[in-house]
Design brief:
- The mean pLDDT is 94.
- By secondary structure, the chain is an alpha+beta fold.
- It is elongated and about 90 Å long.
- The protein has 15 helices and 16 strands.
- The strands form 3 sheets. It has an 8-stranded mixed β-sheet, with helices on both faces. It has a 5-stranded mixed β-sheet with strand order 13-12-14-15-16, with helices on both faces. It has a 3-stranded antiparallel β-sheet with strand order 2-4-3.
- The longest helix has 18 residues.
- The structure holds adenosine-5'-triphosphate (ATP) and magnesium ion.
- Adenosine-5'-triphosphate binds next to strand 6, strand 10, strand 11 and helix 11.
Amino acid sequence: MTTVKAVRGTRDLLPPETALWNRIEATARAVFARYNFGEIRTPVFEDTALFARGVGEETDIVSKEMYTWEDRARAQSEKTQSLTLRPENTAGVVRAYIEHKLGETGQLQKLFYIGPQFRRERPQKGRYRQFSQIGAEVIGPTSSGSESPLRDAEVLEMLATLLDELGITGWTLHINSVGSAADRARYNEVLREALVPVAPRMCVDCQRRAVTNPLRVLDCKVPEDQPIIEALPKIADSLDEDSKQHFAGVIAALDAAGVPYTRNHRLVRGLDYYTRTTFEFTHGGLGAQNALLGGGRYDGLSEAIGGPKAPGIGFAMGEDRLVLTLQAQEAARPEPRHAYIAPLGEALNPAALALARELRRGGLTVELGDGNFRLKKSFEAAEKTARRIVILGEDELASGILTVKEFATGIQTKVPRSDLPAVLAAPVSA
Ligand code: ATP
Ligand code: MG
């Protein structure tokens, strides 16, 4: 019989890697709490219309990457409905904001989420069909200050702090402003004209984009096209006064807080409701999939999905890519257990469980061996997982004095049972 395997683009996460995932999530939760964000959990599947309107019909995500199905009616009275596994979480959060009338509180809503997202992409390192995002949204009625450039800068400063606390070194923050929908429409025309003379020298994709969607030329990765693209007009020159001032406000606050950034004129989102600030954090260690996270302001999104005016800004980090980065930095080595308990002979197994229980209840991380193993095997197993081994034989049980060996130094000592928790909790002496 052929074996059933995990579906292409999905994977099992196993220990010890899952410990790293948990550490990342715990750090994110702790940082979000300090910035007064609360957690939101939205359904993993939604009405397809939400993404069609909230992400955009013409995006790659909606046009070719979604897992969509027609849900069968269970009763005559029920209609079939087109449902989709969420490819991202912002649309779901904004739907919930509208559905629960969170805007009516008048308060700025600061919401974070952690969870799986689904896109039918070509799987490769750092790109999967089920992946996890850690994200947050700051959204509210204009009166709550949701449009202020201070909110953009605060989100970026929080991200810099989060990456630092995760131990991710060498990230780069790319930032740009795409202005208002009108600014972008104007820029699109400026680009279209500028592309007329140069497009014939560009790749076939760009030749097509030059006509259908000039903004997307800026995403081109073909090396030969790069000098041409660098010489194209910049969106900064098409921004109106309000957008320019907003961006200056973001930059001034980032400078004051000492958050490093680089201005990237090519960071342009193509959707109508994306406004003003756009950003991405990249990391060189990730290769082709170098974006750790992306985000931006979306002042028109709530209205696009039928809600009230609710300006907002948010981001989504690729948790899988955070894991890859930390693994590559070797910051990911799991903490060794405090101790491995090796009973000498099967008869000592019950006493060993009792000792392990005592130590574990006292907060220590303990691996329990088995008296059926030869001592050599116990030592080998212990050295792989723990800082110290505790030998429990008949003599030790009777005298209450245990033999403890510390692997890093090779030092072997006799320890009274009552001192054991303190000795095992102590850092290695070397
Ligand atoms: P990319 O350019 O890498 O495809 P994107 O622009 O599609 O990214 P967003 O939709 O902004 O990405 O999602 C935010 C983050 O989620 C990305 O920066 C990335 O870290 C992560 N991400 C997106 N798609 C995937 C995927 N298929 N597998 C793993 N992580 C992903
Ligand atoms: Mg993508």
